[in-house]
Design goal:
360 residues; three-stranded antiparallel sheet; 10 helices; 49% helix; Pep_chain_release_fac_I_sf; cytoplasm
Length: 360
């Protein structure tokens, strides 16, 4: 615990140092440096404020303990003990809050996301489940006050999706939805099943933080752009002009096709947005094989044996296999009530990081 508080004191010392730097005329004159230091100071302000509160509370606890060693009348003794009880509760709460603030921060947590949902194993039923997941995340986003934009879709003749690509924007979207990457398994009787047998199908969900120009710069010479005619489900042409766009990032081989927008210019803009996110995701990993391993780990191949979560319709049950959480409220979850699952995943992640922090 001493090491933890040494780290905490180092943060407090840095905060004081930043305050001095931001009042230096040379720093004020350098707008880029001033902004960078201001952002750093803002990022640790809450931690330092909580630490100062913690020191104040522990000082009051020490004073009360000293009082209890003196000869006090019964009323004063009772009052000091009650005050001490409240102060110890505050101390425990502040320790918990400070620990969470000291956990390593994911630099992408504040970002918007690109979400890709693919129908995987199970044919038509998998595509229908992909559509169900799209509806589930759309309703959850609405509850959060986020905005959902469909960037591209590839529909099936039964009303499902082979693939649908979303841009979800709002407050801290990535911090909550980053745990959704992986293979999602559904167990239910398909509408096409006449014998009433339960089938198992899967859809994969991929979550990528939205990348801006400041995150990654794509050179035009590294991008090949092909245009072609947009087509609808079943292959019929829905546009007689070449408005669909395919972009290939030559250094990585990443390909993005976009045909859902009304014009070639709009398709180009959306394709570039998604390409930038995929390339940023790629370059976050240092080597190609590491990228592939992470991609397979995060999204999976969609095989029925791979899953992060199972949606069992006959028993109205959802199970997240990573944390062993089972909820018998599938109908509510499919209606966008994902908070209980996401909060549990965040807590499990925080618990793991707290253990690592204690061992450092």
């Amino acid at each position: 615990m001493d090491k933890f508080f040494d780290k905490l004191q180092a943060v407090a010392d840095r905060y004081e140092e930043l305050g001095e730097l931001l009042s230096d005329p040379e720093v004020i004159a350098d707008s880029d440096r001033f902004m960078k230091l201001s952002k750093e100071m803002g990022s640790i302000r809450e931690t330092v404020e909580k630490y100062n509160q913690y020191k104040d509370v522990t000082s009051q606890i020490a004073e009360n303990n000293d009082l209890l060693r003196e000869k006090l009348d019964d009323d004063m003794n009772t009052m000091v003990k009650e005050d001490l009880k409240n102060l110890n509760a505050q101390k425990d709460q502040l320790e918990h809050e400070i620990t969470l603030l000291m956990l390593p921060k994911d630099p992408n947590d504040d970002k918007n996301i690109i979400m890709e949902i693919h129908g995987a194993a199970g044919g038509d039923e998998a595509s229908l489940f992909a559509a169900d997941l799209f509806n589930m995340y759309s309703k959850y986003a609405e509850r959060q006050g986020w905005n959902v934009e469909v960037a591209d879709r590839n529909e099936t003749e039964v009303g499902g999706f082979k693939e649908i690509v979303l841009i979800i924007s709002g407050n801290k979207v990535y911090s909550k939805l980053k745990y959704e990457s992986g293979a999602h398994r559904v167990q239910r009787v398909p509408v096409t099943e006449s014998a009433g047998r339960v089938h198992t199908s899967t859809a994969t969900v991929g979550i990528m933080p939205e990348a801006k120009d400041v995150d990654i710069k794509l050179e035009q010479k590294d991008i090949r752009v092909d245009v072609f005619r947009s087509s609808g489900a079943g292959g019929q042409h829905i546009n007689k002009t070449s408005s669909a766009v395919r972009m290939t990032h030559l250094p990585t081989g990443i390909v993005v096709s976009m045909q859902d927008q009304r014009s070639q210019q709009q398709n180009r803009a959306k394709a570039m947005e998604i390409l930038r996110a995929r390339v940023y995701d790629y370059y976050q990993s240092r080597e190609q094989n590491q990228y592939d391993a992470e991609r397979k780990s995060a999204v999976g191949t969609g095989d029925r044996s791979e899953r992060i979560r199972t949606y069992n319709y006959p028993q109205n049950r959802v199970t997240d296999h990573r944390i062993g959480l089972t909820l018998n409220k599938l109908d509510r979850i499919m209606n966008g009530e994902l908070d209980e699952i996401i909060d549990a995943l965040i807590l499990a992640d925080q618990t793991k990081k707290i253990e690592q922090l204690a061992n450092d």
